[in-house]
Amino acid sequence: MRILFLSHYYPPESNAPANRVSELAGEWAALGHDVTVVTCTPSHPGGRPYPGYGNPLLYTETLDGVEVIRLGTFLAANQGTIRRSLNYLSFLAAVVLNLPRLPKADVVISTSPQFFAGLSGAIVAKAKRSPFILEIRDIWPESASAVAALKKGLAFRVLETIEAWAYGVADQVVAVSPAFVEHISKRGKLRRPVAIVENGVNLNLFDGQTQENDFRARHGLEGKIVFGYVGTHGMAHNLETLLRAAELTRDDPEIAYLMAGSGAQRSKLVALRDELGLTNVVMLDHQPRSEMPTIWSNTDVSLVLLRRSPLFHRVIPSKMFEAMAMSRPIILAVDGQARAILEAGDCGIFVEPEDPEALATTVRRLSADIGLRSRLGANGKSFVRANYNRRVLAERYLRIIESVAAPRPAG
Fold first, then answer.
1. DSSP state letter for 389
2. pTM
3. CATH code of the domain covering residue 151
4. What domain range includes position 223?
5. Which DSSP state fits 175?
6. I need a labelling partner for 227 at 20 to 30 A (CA). Which of 109, 190, 200, 407 fits?
7. Which residues 6+ apart lie within 8 Å of 94 measured at CB?
């Protein structure tokens, strides 16, 4: 089967959408399918091409058995609304301009957000006369409004109209969370019920084994109980909460915090850390995917935080599954669907979002109780292996693709 997948992000970028698409595509290719991914020049998060890449109009390479077509776009760092919007729009424009050069496929998939990558799949599918699957990883434009990146004015209403249209033209909508189903079903006239393929983890990469290295020594973390936040430092996360908790626990010399990642708020967070004089917080910039197991293995507890918003009750942060696979207990400041998974797996402790005092109290509790950390970590590893193995999820997704791509009966 020929699968054409459109995604704004793809490795060597290492954010959540790039990881999801590449791991799914790699599994399908390994099963003998012809998989092509249409994407951009790798430039996230800095807005500059990665070493070895330029930004030509079209460039093709093969990664892990997957053909990757990279289109030239307007590059922008992961900060600032206008330049990022131009970056997103330019991908849609590049797809339209290169339609004749894109291969035919038995099915076209596009993933949203970013919003315009999702729309590009509808255009390609129409042009190639292929069935179309729209994957929803976040509810947009609502999620942009929730973090004050988009006001609920005329532009918001226009985007809502386009959102409903995209749901309606898709032969199948695939969501990463069952909490998205009600919203999607209300917003669009669907051709089929929404299918669910949740995020998961590559258990070959995140095997839970301790990495023997000098990471802690290099970053001044030897002898510390390390509480790690790994991921985007964006408006949706309000990581000031973490820094305020670090301020509340600075009197305990055994407690340290590790923040690894980039995003629109990172420079402000670095400035706040320095202003508060927090010597117990180590901040690393964006790290390659290959370094993630090392980073996780050098933390003792994973921190997963989002702002307090009803919209985020639907969200399941993918970093939860990596932490579980690495046997790291989780402190979760996300209510709703993510909390339900945490409690079902008995693999961490929930705290109210945007509550530094509650976070600090839980940090102290886990710091003092190695037995609790060990039990929660072991529970998480067992739970993720039973329920969120990326290979199993890829096979489930493939069955959905096959049902959509199957020839329709005449009449």
1. B
2. 0.88
3. 3.40.50.2000
4. 215-387
5. E
6. 200
7. 40, 57, 71, 72, 73
